Amino acid sequence: MKAVVLLSGGLDSYTAAAIAKSDGFALNALTIQYGQRHAFEIQSARLVARALGVERHLELSIDLRGIGGSALTSDMEVPRDRDLDAAIIPPTYVPARNTIFLSLALGWAEVLGARDIVIGVHARDYSGYPDCRPEFIAAFERLAALATRAGVEGAAFRVHTPLVTFSKADIIRRGGDLGLDYGLTTSCYDPSGEGRPCGHCDSCLLRAKGFREAGVVDPLLLR
Fold first, then answer.
1. Beta strand 2-6 with 116-118: parallel, antiparallel or unpaired?
2. Pick from 2, 4, 162, 199: CA 20 to 30 A from residue 19's CA?
């Protein structure tokens, strides 16, 4: 069984990919350089892809900085020490990012003859992004059936979200069960040039909370 997995270099996509591999899928990893300020994650994605033993690792560039509208693709300031329970969509939301990423994954899957796509979204312990919700994933599966030759000819594409009901701590525990080395990953939205995490952005705070609740030391802190 072939699957295309969106691989960012973070612990969520690493864990989702590892779960898919444990379920018997041959992984074809897709990493997207979209003009993100945390481009250091591309290096982590290469390390993670090697650790997973993927069949292929495709890196695509699509520069979303021209669209802007996000602290990750513009000069907007990345929020620090934000209240993660605040009921707002933060400025680190990248307009239509997962729609774009899944569309690219869908195109590659059709070329490969794969009918399965894996993405590490989850709807608990996340930053409130609308394109991480189960409703969005279900809608995209319907779109895939209508928008592709394979779909018109009767093939069914499935978008796997193995982490969708997990908290960050749940993800880390599952990764521990799978023997994953989270020292290969990066999560920070605004790292230093050497890749050191800021420790204050939403992603850093959620990662720290997850490791704390899982009762595990983040291997990045041991470096």
1. parallel
2. 199
